[in-house]
Design brief:
The chain is mainly alpha-helical and 533 residues long. Helices cover 68% and strands 2% of the residues.
């Protein structure tokens, strides 16, 4: 056999290996093929090719395994179990930009699923090589490194701390100032994922100088970058008033409020989350937002039905109302309470209804005026219906109960309280009757109306055990009316009257004429016969 034929055998083998890995890569691009590939032991066949002497085959094998890891959690776990990563990570710095990008993409895919797979990658030494790639000259390599760090840090606090200990934060801040939009996106995402776990991690991110570059990126035209920037700033601001103040002082408002109406749903949601995280901390933050026109922007957000923006808009209004009765009054005057009440229907998603209920409670809790504004929308009846509805979630029921408690304890409108007497359970009745016991003793017109509309009768029909708070309230109400009136509306009183009628012995007056024209009245019993005069 000639040398040419001998070499041809090796060339054919090389071509076959290359063709195999290319074809598997094409098959891995279709999710429907993943189960079949896994059943065919595709990882076991590809693993030897990771150390192939022919560089294109090795690179193609890494890319293909990365595709498989992206498509399947079980395959990602098998990649960790088969110990594929250490050899690839050891050659990370020695490879070219394509090799680095492929390896980083594989580590990113493996780390994306669970804390266990991400932790395994960290234990195999992934962070050292990944962080080193943040200093690479190639933007694509740095971008892949940023996204890999983001996927590792997002799972748990200890993984985020490992990223910080590896020295990633200063390099990520530098990456956030690069001109490439994709690189800024990855850096913003990684910084946000690190900051979201704990106040101390958020403080480290802030101290590294990240807020300034992130705030400047708010004005970018890149939609994806805006989304990650708002998310990162929200993850920083949520931990404490001090961190929220740092974000506000960076000048992200009022631009953030304008983005609540952004056409991209994810951008609008991230902006809404940031506004909510800032508003929850203090009255001063809420007043600043209101001064910048937040209430109008939030009302528009409430009108975005079926979106997360709607829920966060409602939540922010709740935070504002909770901090101050003046801010709650400003929300009432903006006619927002009517919109919130309209959300209390079956067509609204459960979590949105629960948020609206919570917000109405914070609006109504301040004074009779606030409570009256909520009552005028018919919200009390809706809240009671949702509380009694067996289909309502436990969270929704608890929020309805608490909101009714807060609102009823401030309500002094008999017309709003009385309709609730018929169906309210005892745990709600005590708040209704308690308010009636405060209003009726001091208002004669209200007492007359209460009797005329049947309210006193409903009070007498309430089953209350002696010595309970509810019984005390009923006693106070009964003392506001004459005893015979109370007795008249008491249960069984009609029957007792009928019994008295049946047992009554009537006295009949007989009228007769005398000879001299005078009239003589004789009293006779009912058993006597009638006699002519």
């Amino acid at each position: 056999m000639t040398p040419k034929k001998i070499l041809q055998v090796f060339e054919d083998y090389q071509t076959a290996r290359h063709s195999f890995v290319q074809n598997v890569g094409k098959l891995a691009s279709r999710p429907s093929n993943i189960v079949l590939l896994e059943g065919a032991s595709v990882l076991e066949l590809l693993q030897p090719l990771l150390s192939d002497v022919f560089a294109p085959i090795k690179a193609e094998a890494i890319n293909t395994i990365g595709k498989l890891a992206t498509s399947s959690q079980s395959l990602s776990e098998n990649i960790v179990r088969m110990n594929m990563l250490p050899n690839l990570l050891s050659s990370l710095q020695a490879g070219n930009k394509y090799h680095k990008t492929a390896v980083l993409s594989l580590v990113r895919a493996v780390s994306s699923y669970t804390p266990e797979t991400a932790g395994a990658a960290v234990q195999m030494g992934a962070l050292q090589g990944v962080v080193a790639c943040l200093e690479d000259f190639e933007p694509n390599v740095k971008t892949a490194s940023c996204w890999t760090i983001s996927n590792i840090a997002r799972h748990r606090k200890d993984l985020a701390e490992a990223v910080v200990d590896a020295g990633a934060v200063p390099l990520l801040v530098l990456c956030s100032q690069e001109p490439e939009a994709c690189l800024k996106q990855g850096a913003a995402s990684a910084l946000g994922e690190i900051a979201r776990h704990a106040p101390e991690l958020a403080r480290l991110v802030v101290d590294a100088g990240s807020v300034g570059p992130l705030a400047r990126a708010v004005c970018s035209k890149d939609t994806k970058l805006k989304r990650h920037v708002f998310a990162a700033l929200g993850n920083i601001a949520k931990h404490s008033p001090e961190l929220a103040e740092v974000v506000v002082e960076a000048g992200v408002f009022p631009d953030t409020l304008l983005h609540l109406a952004h056409t991209d749903e994810r951008v609008a949601k991230s902006a809404a989350v940031l506004v909510s995280e800032v508003a929850k901390h203090s009255l001063e933050m809420c007043e600043l937002l209101v001064h910048l026109g937040a209430i109008g922007a939030l009302i528009e957000a409430v009108g975005r039905s079926g979106s997360d923006v709607q829920m966060y808009g409602i939540m922010t209004l709740g935070f504002m109302a909770a901090h101050s009765e003046q801010l709650a009054l400003a929300i009432i005057e903006s006619k927002c309470v009517t919109e919130l009440s309209c959300l209390l229907c079956e067509d609204t998603e459960d979590h949105v209804m629960a948020t609206a209920v919570w917000t109405l409670g914070h609006i109504a809790k301040h004074s009779p005026r606030h409570s009256q504004a909520v009552a005028d929308t018919g919200a009390f009846t809706k809240l009671l219906q949702m509380f009694l509805n067996p289909k309502s979630s436990e969270d929704l029921k608890q929020k309805c109960r608490k909101t009714l408690k807060l609102a009823l304890q401030k309500c002094i409108d008999i017309a709003a309280l009385e309709p609730l007497l018929c169906n309210a359970p005892v745990e709600i009745l005590k708040y209704i009757v308690g308010q009636l016991s405060k209003v009726l003793p001091n208002d004669a017109k209200a007492r007359r109306l209460f009797v005329a509309t049947g309210g006193l009768k409903k009070i007498q029909e309430i089953p209350a055990d002696p010595g309970t708070t509810l019984m005390e309230y009923i006693t106070i109400i009964n003392c506001c009316f004459p005893e015979d009136v109370v007795r008249y509306f008491s249960p069984g009183h009609e029957e007792s009257l009928l019994d008295r009628v049946e047992q009554y012995e009537p006295n009949v007056l007989c009228v007769g004429s005398q000879g001299d024209g005078e009239i003589e009245d004789d009293t006779v019993n009912s058993d006597d016969t009638y006699h002519e005069a």
